[in-house]
Design brief:
It is built from no helices and 17 strands. By secondary structure, the chain is an all-beta fold. A hairpin with a 7-residue loop joins strand 11 (125-130) and strand 12 (138-144). The model has no long low-confidence stretch (mean pLDDT 88).
Length: 208
C-alpha cells in the first residue's frame, strides 16, 4: 500500500492519467485537441471517470469518459479542443469521480507536460477565395491559427445590413463555404467573432 514507485493493484477504484501524450513538443498553432493516456489502476472495471485538462492557469476542459476499461488496462483519450497563446506552457491533466465514486489512491491521478507554441501565422488570419465554378457563388473561407473552436461570421453590406450570418467550427475544419448566390453586386464586409477576438475582411461581388 506504499505510495512509492512500485504500487500494486490494491484499490477497487483507482483511475489515473499515466501520461499526457499530446501536446508535448512544439505546436504550430494555438488550437489543439489534447490527448492523454487513461489507466485503470484499480481492481474494479472502470466504466466512468471525469478527465480534466488545463494549461497554466486557464479554465480547464472536461470530458466524461464512459466505456469499459478493465483492471490495469490503458486507453488513449482525445479531449475537447483547447486554445492557448504563444511561447512556453505547462499542461496538467487529472481524473476525478471514477465510477461516480471516490478515488482511493489520489497520488497517480495527475500528469503534467511542458510544450511550446510557435506559429509563423498570425492568429485568426483569414483567406478568401471563390470556388472555380462561377455559377455556384460559393466563397471559400479559411481561418488560420484560430484562437477558439467556433467563429461567428456576418456578411454585412455597406449600409450595415446583415445579409447572412452563422456559426462555423474551425478547430477540426478550418475551411468552410458560404453561399452568396442571392447577394447583389456590390461591396460587402465579413465580420467574424472568434473567442475574444474579431476578424474583418472586405469582398466584392460582381454580377455580369
Amino acid at each position: 500500500t506504499s505510495p512509492g514507485g512500485c504500487q500494486g493493484v490494491a484499490f477497487n477504484l483507482d483511475a489515473s492519467i499515466s501520461t499526457i501524450t499530446f501536446p508535448v513538443d512544439t505546436l504550430p498553432s494555438q488550437g489543439f485537441a489534447p490527448q492523454v493516456q487513461l489507466k485503470n489502476s484499480g481492481i474494479d472495471d472502470l466504466t466512468y471517470v471525469e478527465i480534466y485538462y488545463q494549461v497554466d492557469g486557464q479554465n480547464p476542459v472536461v470530458l466524461e469518459y464512459q466505456g469499459l476499461l478493465a483492471s490495469t488496462s490503458s486507453t488513449l483519450v482525445t479531449l475537447p479542443p483547447y486554445f492557448t497563446g504563444e511561447f512556453g506552457h505547462i499542461s496538467t491533466a487529472w481524473t476525478s469521480n471514477p465510477n461516480h465514486g471516490i478515488d482511493q489512491f489520489i497520488y497517480n491521478d495527475t500528469a503534467t507536460a511542458p510544450f511550446f507554441v510557435r506559429s509563423t501565422v498570425l492568429k485568426n488570419t483569414t483567406t478568401i477565395s471563390v470556388v472555380a465554378q462561377e455559377a455556384t457563388d460559393q466563397w471559400h473561407i479559411t481561418v488560420q491559427n484560430p484562437s477558439d473552436a467556433i467563429i461567428h461570421l456576418q456578411v454585412v453590406n455597406v449600409v450595415g445590413q446583415i445579409i447572412q450570418e452563422g456559426n462555423w467550427s474551425v478547430i477540426n475544419n478550418p475551411s468552410f463555404m458560404i453561399d452568396l448566390s442571392g447577394v447583389a453586386s456590390g461591396t460587402y464586409f465579413l465580420f467574424g467573432k472568434i473567442g475574444y477576438d474579431y476578424v474583418r475582411e472586405k469582398i466584392m461581388v460582381v454580377r455580369k
